[in-house]
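Structure ticket #2291
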Amino acid sequence: MKRLIQFELRKIFSKRLTQTALLLLAFLSVLLAFSSYQNTYAFDGNGHEETGKTAVSIDKALAAKYEGVLTNEKVQQMMTDFAPKTNLHGLNAAYLYQNAMQSAVFARFADINGNWNGLSVSDVFGDEKINIGYSASWISTSQNMVRIFLVLSMVIIIMIAPVFCCEYNGVDQIVLTSKYGRTKCAAAKTIASMIAAFIVTLTVTLANFLLAFVLYGNDGLTCSVLWTPMPMTEGYIPFNITCKMLLAYQILLAFTGAISVTGITLIVSAVSKNQITALVVSAAIYMFPVLLPIEETNVLFRYIGLLPLYHAQFISLMSIECMSNGLLYAVWVVPVACIFIGA
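Resolution: structure written out below.
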């Protein structure tokens, strides 16, 4: 059985299309990481306006000045330190971006002119204890990985689609009439497909986190995701979880998404007569939820959101509900993934 699985793994990874897709995925990961890094902008209010590595250093230095639990005193201090020094010419101060900390505090505590709007921490966040600091890098990394995991799902479909259907050229008659054709051979293909999807997902995840650590360091992992700059605030996860927890959920959903996509593609591959049909049908099934006219506020989205597409595009799924045990509704993807691969 072990040799059969190894043989199937070699078949999966030796295909030229698979190798090309994996190279493109690796290129996308590096491109997004360095693009976000180089496009980082920060102005410290004292004449230092930078991008890239220096901007990250400015953001980190400012975050270190205010990091810890958010208090009314810190809000007042930040509002004073980041007060606009020039006329905004009608621009709403909430959309003014000097640096990550300034943008985060102005998005919640500034009026249109950049003055304090009179709200306290409890007015904005209720009884939640908000830990602030340099979290923008991890939020940016998380957003990049949404795009990467969507592409990863397509790569897995490309890898797995030929597993069964490519046997339908006469070889299937030999395989199915052999002693282990319907048992060990089929099982080896299924197991090899799961292993291949797991290996690729693990490699992509580790590579992206390594890039993030190299570029940004580990600052901000304990910060709340509720404390984000204005461009990341609207439509983001509404629960007070840390960046570390956010990334943990995203990794979980990446693997459940990979398992679910593998299950769907294996089913389609087993009933398709050629690779192109398997590819197109599997991709269509994967993308189908975006065509449904169901809003995130609709009760049906609680079930639609458990489909593999939303494992990668995880923000909508993680925004549904925080259950009484402290876990987010998104954990229900685990049994769903087991159903897909079990089928």
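Closing remark: The longest helix spans residues 184-216.
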